Amino acid sequence: MRDVTFAYPGTEGPAALSGVSLGLHPGELVVVLGRNGSGKSTLARLLNGLLLPDSGTVEVDGLSTSSADGIWEIRRTVGLVFQNPDNQIVGTLVEEDVAFGPENLGLPRDELRSRVDTALAAVGLTGLERREPHLLSGGQKQRLAIAGALALDPAYLVLDEPTAMLDPRGRADVLRVLANLRARGTGIMHVTHHVEDAADADRVVVLDGGRAAFEGTADVLFGDLERLKTLGLDIPPVGLLARRLHDAGAPIPVTAVRADDVVEALWPSS
Ligand code: ATP
Ligand code: MG
Fold first, then answer.
1. Does the beta carbon of 34 sit less than 6 angstroms from any atom of ligand 1?
2. Whose CA is nearest to atom 9 of ligand 1?
3. Which entry of 148, 189, 197, 264 is 20 to 30 Å from 106 by CA?
4. Distance set, CA 39 to CA 45, 169, 194, 205, 209 (Å)
5. Measured at the alpha carbon of residue 181, what is the angle toward residues 155 and 191, in degrees to the nearest 5?
6. Phi, psi of 51 (to 5 degrees)
7. Ligand sitting nearest the alpha carbon of 35
8. pTM tops 0.90
9. Residue nearest to atom 15 of ligand 1 (CA)
10. What are the tens digits of pLDDT across the range 94-149?
11. 24 Cβ below 6 A of ligand 1
């Protein structure tokens, strides 16, 4: 994304996104944070051409989203997953739902079968092929939505608050799937309001009023409480506790934000 500005037609005031430049590489995890209305969903929709920039360019592996020729290739290359799993299910059976995208590519039968099987395996839903999607848990539905995106064999996945509607277990399952995909080389952009999700990211981008107000590592961001506050981000309670323990002399990094990291710092697993 190079110097991208986008305003929704008919709106006044500041653009939803202003002058944002950003890159995502294969195997990289970029986490996007920001208060409500800061432009996160707009950013996600610009990345696969659902929205087109007013100025600046969005390029996917050399193809511009603004060129009519490239748009279908781009939609195949950048998978998009949204917050509400119920809105993303189109099939009456799990396997039909995953097959929907590749079917529209006109793939041969056996290639289709192998795409579906591979995608379901990647999200841990093997065995549920003939299940009706509405009988799945929220976390399973969201993993099904991810499988639907994976069936198109995308190089990049952009997820817009994919765990916002899930319970802690469903959330943990989805995060595990993302970690596995990243390890296998998929470039992942994870838009989230869970500040602690940034802890594993290669880079963190914080949007504020449509601008990229921070870009850097989680350690730098978490090390600056004042900055977090200015950006409208809440440090999780574990992060505050870690800070107090650190100040009291415990061997805990001041930037720890997750319980596991605090436990690991206090009682390192051998
Ligand atoms: P949230 O955390 O609530 O999901 P967000 O960071 O995803 O917010 P966006 O949805 O990208 O923010 O919205 C950015 C700005 O654009 C906001 O001011 C919002 O009101 C405005 N906006 C979003 N969608 C539309 C739309 N369809 N039409 C007009 N304005 C919109
Ligand atoms: Mg949003």
1. yes
2. 39
3. 189
4. 10, 28, 16, 12, 7
5. 80
6. -120, 150
7. 1
8. yes
9. 16
10. 999 999 999 988 889 999 999 999 999 999 999 999 999 999 999 999 999 999 99
11. no
